[in-house]
Records
---
Amino acid sequence: MFSLMKIFDKKAEVSKDEIAAFLKTEPEALEMFEKAYNAYSIAAGSPDNLFKINSRQVSEMTAGIELNAPEGLEDIKRRIVNELIAKTVIYDYKDKKSQVIDLRKEIPDEELVTREEIMKIPEPYRPAFTGSLMKIDIPGSGRQLLSILKECMEQKNPLKQKKLYQIFRQGLDILDLDAIVYEIIDKNVNSMGYWLPHMVEIIDEEGFFKIPNTRIIKVPLTLLQLTRQDYMSLTRSTLDIVDEYCRKVFDLKDDKEYFIKTGTYSSKYDFRNAKVAGAKEIRELGEYLLFIHWQALQMAHYDLTGRNQPVIYGVSTTTEWVVREYIKDTEHNPCIYHGMPLHTEYRVFVDFDTDTILGIHPYWDKGVMKKHFERVDDADARHDYITYSLAEDQLYNRYFKNKDTVMEHIKALLPKVDMQGQWSIDIMQNGNDFYFIDMAVAENSAFFREAVPLESRKPMKENWIPDLSDKKERNYFFDKSKNTISDLSIR
């Protein structure tokens, strides 16, 4: 019998495939395998790679009671929370009913937290923002980005145009926010606040797919600007304000379980970022959202770590935060990525212009998964390779058994959906239930090339030109359906 603790070493004498084969024949050893992995992870401590650290680990670093906090700080924190609420728009889907809740209202100037009040607070306790004040390094980001976008659209040289487009997209993720940048980012149709309102009524009417209860907020500008600051420098009072604000606008309950994400990104590949349960975690949910949004935007920076980290923009180009009902696993599936059950999932590619299905692909593609775990090859990847190998046959058997049924019901939806272009739709199976869980522009989605024939592919028309009209009157959750101002398709 080999040592379970040693199998997570790169120099383990027993191969991952041999371990998976053994665990298939010795089910009782699986529990021992998981215990050994947990013990190994605890012994390893927190990673030194920013992109491998999770929100819970960061929360422990920033935990603490503000001893000797200055008089009046609690009242200022309360007022800032109220200011943020008064700048919030919510989309709420619950029990097959949806509504837009507009909490925006004017607060008299004399009631706003002033810069003078903030500066009187000693720096270690000082909030980094209010509902109307925020820190920036360089002003004028909006005009700069619009200038780059204009030059990009007028550029005739394809290589220069592509370079300008990449600079523009990177800037959306790393430059300071202003009202213009906020509105440009809000044009991203990959964000859940765009596609979910278009789908819920049609899906519920058709009746086959389920949708978890979901609340989406448009994050107020000054709060979203925190994602452009150094998260590790934020004071405890700043994080307390974010936590309390989220507790109120998401109507959080201590006895519930939630799945959290930004409008475009869940950070589910460390599932400790995505699932929130227990009173302590629910009280800290706001800082978790802030951290995963900030962490995702760091991918767009040039690599300064020496790890050859590529520049990746667009992961969390969104103005939205999302809290969803957590779908409890009814199948006792094995877990990868620190707690994510391996449900069978289906990625369906559709064309809303022609009401056709373009293709379908298993989300947990065995070639992609195993190559990824082999390439990374640390303790987590070794665990997940072995666990995935145990689940592989069941995942594929369910996929092939049900994929035609999934496509049949997706096809029934298409003529009724008021959207344009080619999209991917993700369906998750949980027992006999099939959940509609995600969407994205098809060409931005994994397996687009594998599932969609070359002759069927069409680039999406992008529109990043912001609407700078009176925001009080417009519906933030539907305006992005107008994709006709520009025809900018650069890949």
---
Amino acid sequence: MPVRALVEAGGFFGMESASVRVALARLLSRERVERDERGRYRLGAGADAVSGTIRGWRRLDAQTVEWSGGWVGVYRRRGDARPLRLAGDRALSLLGFRALEPNLFLRPDNLVGGIDGLRSRLSGMGLEASALVFGLGELDSDCEGRARELWDLAGLNRAYREAVRVLSRSRGELEGASNEKAMVETFRLGGQAIRQLVLDPLLPSAIARNEERDALAVRMLDYDVFGRGCWAEFLQKHGVLHLRTPADLRVAVGTEGLAFIPSPEQIGDPGPQPDSSSIE
């Protein structure tokens, strides 16, 4: 995507041109994006681990295997620097882990790839190297009961039902709306729904029923087609391939407040901002 397209799209969301260019410079320095000789940008290697997980929202069932009752544990040592801890927090949240004890995090061992696969994915997403990732079996009855109650299942299902309602209403109301309004709303609401689906902990049926989540996934497939149609003319004008859904990497920031997408200010202080003069 060329800078002019990013700047124009940012304007739809109330972003200043300079802010878009500074954000690009920061992402470039972190290898989250890369630039070719024509000055066009795409996701870089530093975004692979997260973007791959995000793009799996269409195939949630394909990411799990039958659960045999085992667990995956992550033990985090004290003393790591705060930026490392924050990256680890995000990685664990994105892959459905919850804290059983202050430094011990669990999830069911039901993801494709098993423990080795999870170890690799957590590392790629920023979990500190000092953390231990291992299998757990035959928990005592007290720990087993506590482990099964780590997820707010009622809250997740309420959020899924509300998201279905919001997407359905938006789909009808945008039929006669201006294209710019439709572009902004479909990106925001579609991104919010994708965030909810990506942050689903993918629990086995022995712990959670997934009907509400699956209903949102079906609704989102339809909304995605509609939303990409709203963006097609704009993207075609700028010579951008647009067969896949735009990915908002901010879904990786925590699992609290699933009813909204955090703004950059809510994510936290990004630190020193690089010079954007090289962004052309």
---
Amino acid sequence: MRALLRVPRRSLVDVASCLLPVWLALIVTHTAADADLWGHIRFGADSIAGRTLAAFDHYSFTADTPWINHEWLSEVLLAGVYGAGGAVGLNLLKLGVLGAIVFMTWRAGRLAGGSRFSLVALSSLVVFASYSRTQVLRPQLFSVLFFAVLLTLLAIRERRGWNDRKTKAASVAIPVLFCIWANAHGGWLVGMATLAVWVGWDFVERRTLRSFAEGTALTAASLAATLVNPYGLGQWTFLHQTVGLSRDVSDWVPFLELQPGMIAFELILPLVALAALLVTRQWPRPRDVVVIAVLAFGTFRVSRIDAFLQIATGLLLAPAIVDGLGRLERRLRASPRLNTPSFAHGVAIVAIVTATAAVALPRLNRIYIEGPWTPDPEAVRFLQAQAPNSRLLTWFDWGEYAIWHLSPAGIRVSMDGRRETVYSDRVLDGHWAFYKNDPDAGTYPDAIGADRIWLPRRLPVVSVLRERGWQVAFESDVSIVLSRDSGQPYLPAPAEFQPYFPGP
């Protein structure tokens, strides 16, 4: 018992080395709901219940294209985990993905001879740098994980001989990975481009027939594996039509159009890596430079690719980064003041870890509904009670929240976050013109046959609609519901809103 309760003596360097992962734990245990989370779990639950994928959507009255749900596997996983463990299960799933990324980063650094200090720092930096895409529960979370797995498998193939058992296993695992990836998220396109660059440059360096045959076979098998999906070539066609370097989506904007704070955040790991390269003069292989350069170009054009760039930077440049961090550690430990063990420092570490656990663990049973997109729960209560079996023209950020809460009342929405997967360009363009209050926006609800309209109060089109005879059925500080029916505005009874998924 005394051994269990005894606090070890530690130095200030040890205290400092625990602060980064502790701070990271405080960040990653706070999970915010993405606007599409309600839809992902609802659609996944439908697939589980029906044991099939819906060919056409029945939640939206404007959906007019066959539904190619290229993220169905992620949705089934999210729905299954939520059904089994609720918010705790979803949070543990997210932490499991982050833990796997830490494991692969740690492994890359350890193979490069990194110390524990440098491995902790490198792993924390990689998770922190890629967290802009892994902080919410959405299919892209799995793409980031699969990309790290791809780089790890490619490294295993390179490190071992051609006839080594692990090399052969990795060569088989890569096409299997792409098969799973293609059914989980469209980010497999980034992985395929990286694989092509990797094997292509390997042939340039080796210039052997065997390297060409091995690389070609691996790429062809991986590409063919992506066709093992419910839509076959239809998924390729869909991705070709919808994925590009420019889309009208907030996280697809070019890198330089991000907020200054976000740009600074994205540059932390690349700058650390650059400093390590300059200090250690451990120059990476040309192939690794090309892979990182391609991802950097992609990120410059489409900021959403940034997490893949961060993962590649951490894994491919791990030797230089851990060497540079190791040199920093040795300089710190050379100072008697910083490296003298003390009982007080050990107590400080125990206190910091205990306090972090006290804050972080209660968060595991909550997924927070927060941010500027947050919908109005009182409006949802009104619509559930007063507008059953209606056609609701919705603000697109609220569409999947509305599907979750209002579809049991027979209410169908006009727009939600699935965009190109169930809506044609005609429907999308009509909604964007309506939201922006373009000319003739006031006629759009009648054109699509909407019974009710639920929008943020701030939109200029609201006043245009009221001038055209739409009546206020509900109004709050956040949103407004308009109807053709006359009557007294609905005054909801006061109710406390718990801002946690799935909400009221």
